[in-house]
Automatic annotation (TrEMBL):
It comes from the Bacteria. It catalyses: dimethylallyl phosphate + FMNH2 = prenylated FMNH2 + phosphate. This is Flavin prenyltransferase UbiX. Its EC number is 2.5.1.129. The gene is ubiX. It holds the Pfam family Flavoprotein. SUPFAM superfamilies: Homo-oligomeric flavin-containing Cys decarboxylases, HFCD. Keywords: Flavoprotein, FMN, Prenyltransferase, Transferase. Flavin prenyltransferase that catalyzes the synthesis of the prenylated FMN cofactor (prenyl-FMN) for 4-hydroxy-3-polyprenylbenzoic acid decarboxylase UbiD. The prenyltransferase is metal-independent and links a dimethylallyl moiety from dimethylallyl monophosphate (DMAP) to the flavin N5 and C6 atoms of FMN. FMN binds at G10, A11, S12, T36, S93, M94, G95, T96, R128. InterPro entries: Flavin_trans-like, Flavoprotein, UbiX-like. GO terms for molecular function: carboxy-lyase activity; flavin prenyltransferase activity. Dimethylallyl phosphate binds at Y158, K174.
Length: 191
């Protein structure tokens, strides 16, 4: 069974993380979820979800999800010997991006990203910020040079989206494509 860690920070765009987690679980992928404190606050604000209830419902429906404590550096995922397949930071705040790009492991999310880097595992950063300054771009470039996928939360329009869900599904579908996970969340370009 594939194991994927999803980190949710305080950047706007938490609907992408909600949909991604639900899509991973539907596909039987063991999903570790790490919220920053602001990640929880922003998701609750943007989606009107009660995060604790939502996570409880997911745990009742699926036996392959684990909510991780951001402060627990003794978690299994904090170790290189724990074999997860990928880490997705979605949405990724510029503060978390800076911490990851500079090797700071002050919490579990940054530590897991550091483990992905040192163990040569898939790390996908989904920034959701605009405009970007030179420091943001340099931090992304630094990670890209290390093999990290920088996948901005920028929806396409060639699939002729009609709803907000269509725009969200495009970005989530691109993340799944990047992880080689089959999906039909958006119509692929055929020319």
């Amino acid at each position: 069974m594939k194991k994927i860690v999803v980190g949710i920070t305080g950047a706007s765009g938490s609907i992408y993380a909600k949909v991604l987690i639900e899509e991973l679980l539907k596909r039987g992928i063991y999903t570790h979820v790490i919220f920053t404190d602001n990640g929880k606050k922003v998701m609750q604000y943007e989606t009107s979800l009660d995060i604790e209830k939502w996570m409880k419902l997911l745990k009742e429906k699926y036996n392959h999800i684990k909510a991780e404590d951001i402060n627990n550096l003794f978690s299994g995922v904090a170790s290189g010997s724990y074999k997860f397949d990928a880490v997705i930071v979605l949405p990724c705040s510029m503060g978390t991006l800076a911490e990851i790009s500079n090797g700071l492991s002050k919490n579990l999310l940054c530590r897991v990203a550091d483990v992905a880097l040192k163990e040569n595992r898939k790390l996908v950063i989904v920034p959701r910020e605009t405009p970007l300054n030179a420091i943001h771009l340099e931090n992304m470039l630094k990670l890209s040079k290390l093999g990290v996928t920088i996948l901005p939360a920028i929806p396409g329009f060639y699939h002729k989206p009609e709803t907000l869900d269509d725009l969200v599904n495009f970005v989530v579908g691109k993340i799944l494509d990047n992880l080689s996970i089959e999906n039909e969340l958006f119509k692929k370009w055929e020319g």
